[in-house]
Amino acid sequence: MRLMASKHLPLVPSAQPAKRLGFLTDATLCIGCKACEVACKQWNQLPMDGLELTANSYDNTGDLGATTWRHVAFVERFEDGKPAFEQPPFQSGWLMLSDVCKHCVRAGCMEACPTGAIVRTEFDTVVIQQDVCNGCGYCVPACPFGVPDLSMFDGKAHKCTLCYDRLTDGLEPACAKSCPTDSIQFGEVPRLIERARDRVTDLKRLGVDGARIYGDDQLGGTGGIGGLNAFFILTDEPEVYNLPARPKLPQDETLPGLLSTLGAALLLGVGLAFSFRKR
Amino acid sequence: MRHVPEPEGRRGRRRPPTYYGVPPIHKPHWKWLIISYFFLGGLSGGSYVVATAAELFGTREDHDTARIGRYLALLSILPCPILLILDLGRPERFLNMLRVLKLRSPMSLGTWGLLTYSGFATLSTAAQAASDGWRVGSSGILRSVPRRFVGALGAPFAMFIGGYTGVLLGATAVPIWARNARLLGPLFLSSALAVACAAISLILALLPGQRHDALERLRRADTMASMAELCCVVAVHLNSGPLGKPLAEGHLGRLHLAGSVGVGIVLPLVLHALGQMLRLPHRLVVILASLASIVGGFIMKYAVVMAGHVSADDPAATFEYAGGRQTLAVGDDPTPAGNGRGGRR
Predict the structure, then answer these.
(1) Domain harbouring A207, CATH code
(2) Which of residues 202-261 of B touch A (CB under 8 A)?
(3) Residue of A146, A258, A275 with shortest CB distance to B185
């Protein structure tokens, strides 16, 4: 039973040193055009989400889901009653960010998956193998960022693949390709991190005091996740963009939970033995 | 997409930022099928353990307890795989669960645990049936099965089936479950044993014949397990802090208090005490108390699962659970970063 992705690149780890590929999504460059959402849907042949309005600013997709793998968040704020156009011109009351699967270094969805459908690829990305997933849905609450979801169309879990098919052909993911401002940058993670640090330093020099990297394991925003391969430059608290400040790896609780249950089992077993003993 | 109003800020505290109240994590789809599995799996595992304890430590009078426990263990585990398979998005692929064993995934552990336990439950029950004079396949071989030994081997797996479901809930990003990851296993296990004692008592009381001593020992075991369950419920409440809201307030909180604690734990004790005081028929008291304990056990599992849904839908709960130290920017002092309201001069 061998899984071969294509004749060029096997899914099983090869002897060659793996590249660590990912996204740097820079909120300060996002203009909210949603080209990434559209390019993602087109390339990955994802159906539309319906003609719905969330009434949350210009956000019409609302959330990442089974058929939405890029989601542009529009944070529209009225500070002290002032509308956005009366606030400072840059990164104040009008924030945008293209959210995506973080391709965690330690991925909760992958550790939860009981079928082994969720794998780490040779690009260090996390992909759900659609021919294996049986739709148990355990990855859905196991993701600390709310990324995967079960599809109503085929009952299986879906999320961003970081365009695995494009990567195998040497192309960059569709969203990064389509981004007109390079808010979404694709590349090798260590180099992207360097670039992000430079960018944050620049932003600070420009007076954007809140500029920060979200998802660099040295700078925080990753809790027990050990870094994110798709990380972000934000200018405010992560919660403003609907990201948890210190996400935890859910499976770190598996062993303690099992041990405490074992302890309870021993105590209850002794209790039962005494209950049934002759008096 | 539904518009959720932003939560009201508390006095003296800055309103916590949320993104239009959109939940930052996804809740599981688990509903009645899974709640029923949690209940039936617990009942089965608990019955197996009680039957084994009665066999190993009980007297001649506990033979019926062990016998009913064995049959109940098999009968209540039979629907479980069906419930679990029906809950899959692609039921025809259920065998994919057996491709791998992942020690850090409670669901993978549960799959293999359930498989192993089902084997033990089947063997123990078949041996019991053979010794009871039923004509099962090869009764001769089955009669020679060392039942106490098999029971002792299977009991740890039965305990696992009773408790792992709590660990499974705990190993998620759902705030109220994750915060109580170390308590839900013991809670589900003690509830499973209490429900099993109650179910066996109920059947014993409904059968003809006097079994006062056996029922009394089952009552002792039930009370012990119920007290353990009560301790876990209180511990969950104390441990949850603000995350415990779904189990403490509102419709679900009232159901949990009245159902899991009131009907499941307190009412059986009250019924037994009243029965002794007023000299009510023992059989009637046992039947009523057992029913209360069983209903309470089901409500507890319902309340805990549904509380997870409420908790996952509450952005404030996720940000509280996965909050703490703010993210730092390059060059920041690694002490808690200011008020985080950057971006303006």
Answers:
(1) 3.30.70.20
(2) 217-218, 220-221, 224-225, 228
(3) A258
